[in-house]
Amino acid sequence: MNEPTLITDLAPEELDPRDQHERTARAAAQSQRGMTLLEIMIVLAIIALVMGFLVGPRVLESFKEAKSDTARAILKQFAYEAYPRWSAANPSTGCPSSLDELLKYMNKQDVKDPWGNQLVMYCGDNLPEGIKGGFGVASNGPDGKPNTADDIRSWDQK
Predict the structure, then answer these.
(1) Contact (CB, 8 A) for 12 and 20
(2) Could you read off the pLDDT tens digit of each residue along the chain, which spans 158 residues?
(3) What sign for the dihedral angle of Cα 112, 115, 116, 120?
(4) How far is it, in rounded angstroms, from Cα 137 to Cα 106?
(5) 3-class state of residue 139 by DSSP
(6) Which of 28, 71, 91, 104 falls 20 to 30 Å from 38 in CA-CA distance?
(7) What are the backbone dihedrals phi and psi of residue 54, each rounded to the nearest 5 degrees, phi first?
(8) Are residues 158 and 102 in contact, defined by beta-carbon separation less than 8 angstroms?
(9) Rounded alpha-carbon distances, angstroms, from residue 26 to 29, 30, 67, 109
(10) For residues 96 and 6, what is the distance between their CA atoms, to the nearest angstrom?
């Protein structure tokens, strides 16, 4: 009984050219195997971790700086825009009773800083040194404690 001859048992010159081409194509496909979905996901996870460690701290620092810049802008708006308008509308009164009176001259709903702390108004007899124009506003900064290094004041030059 004759056993069937396998393609792999034949010498390359004994193969039909179509079979030889098919065999070469199969071998090439096996040697150039693509990446699996799992391998791609692992690579992406590693890239995300590296980016998180490199970029994350910088982004968080930018958020902190943005809150401080926002606080400075709010304080200056109270001191140099809202108070002069209020003062022009109330010439017989030297100081507003609270910052709430100035809200109608601003595009703001409350008198809190970006950290959620109440703003402090200085007017009349309680003016600290350095305030020009008879009115100032201050934020206690991120720590919420008065008279610390992170306090932000409308009269500071920064």
Answers:
(1) yes
(2) 566 655 556 565 565 667 777 777 777 666 666 778 999 999 999 999 998 888 888 888 888 889 999 999 999 999 999 999 999 999 888 889 989 999 988 888 888 999 999 999 998 877 888 887 789 999 999 999 988 999 999 888 76
(3) negative
(4) 14
(5) strand
(6) 28
(7) -85, -45
(8) no
(9) 5, 6, 61, 71
(10) 101
CA nearest neighbour of 8 among 22, 21, 23: 23
CA distance 92 to 60: 47
CA angle (153, 106, 66) in 5-degree steps: 50
Can you read off the two tokens belonging to residue 118?
């109440």
Q: Tell whether pTM > 0.70.
A: no
The ranges assigned to domains in the chain are 68-153
Query: Can you tell me which residue has the tokens 């460690």?
Result: 53
> CB pairs under 8 A, 24+ apart, for 3-12?
none
CA-to-CA distance for 97 and 86, rounded, in angstroms?
11
